[in-house]
Amino acid sequence: MSSAMAEELTARARIVRAAVRRFAADGMSAPLRTIAADAGVSAGLIIHHFGSADGLRAACDEHVLDVVRTNKQRVFTRSVGAGAMLAQLAEIEGYAPVVGYVLRRLQAGGELAATLVDGFVTDAVEYLAQGEAAGVVRPSRDPAARARVLTEQALGALLLQLPAQQDHLDLDELPGWLRSYPERIVGPLLEVYTEGVLADRTLLDAYLAARESPPSQS
């Protein structure tokens, strides 16, 4: 590879890293000129590499997905659930901007958000199945649907309380915030998961009966 090509790749990588951090801190509409200043390049060079702001965001999506996929396996060996995974990842030195970007992207929606949620659901199916095999998790009539509901509830609760609801997210404070978040929710969640909410099976039995015998069409 020529030195010119190496410099181009280095500039592209530097822009992506700067963009991930800026989008995480200020939201997905952060201006290109600010990202260019962060990366020490011109806005024109960003357009040269990525074509547009959407092209830059797509490159950031690809980079972040790669980081999450690379690190997910090792953090999931020590944590349970999407929120816990993000908290663990944020603790790995230098990855708080990636986690902040993930949370901003989940807020904004789009293809990356859907891909991330699907990935979290797939992992949830796996670790719940492991729990069933170990005898610590009850079997489900529909393991995939249960995993999706639990994942979406966890991410939704996280996003509702996320500091990034504000205009600016302090990435230096994000790991500490993610550590403190489980302290507020673990007790109530364990109560719900262990003891349940409803006193009997009346509603569940009625729902299952209705699904098995749908009303006839007149």
TrEMBL record:
Residues 9-68 form the HTH tetR-type domain. Pfam families: TetR_C_25, TetR_N. Residues 31-50 bind DNA. Keywords: DNA-binding. InterPro entries: Homeodomain-like_sf, HTH_TetR, Tet_transcr_reg_TetR-rel_C_sf, TetR_C_25. It comes from the Bacteria. SUPFAM superfamilies: Homeodomain-like (SSF46689), Tetracyclin repressor-like, C-terminal domain (SSF48498). Gene3D superfamilies: Tetracycline Repressor, domain 2 (1.10.357.10). This is TetR/AcrR family transcriptional regulator. It comes from Georgenia wutianyii.
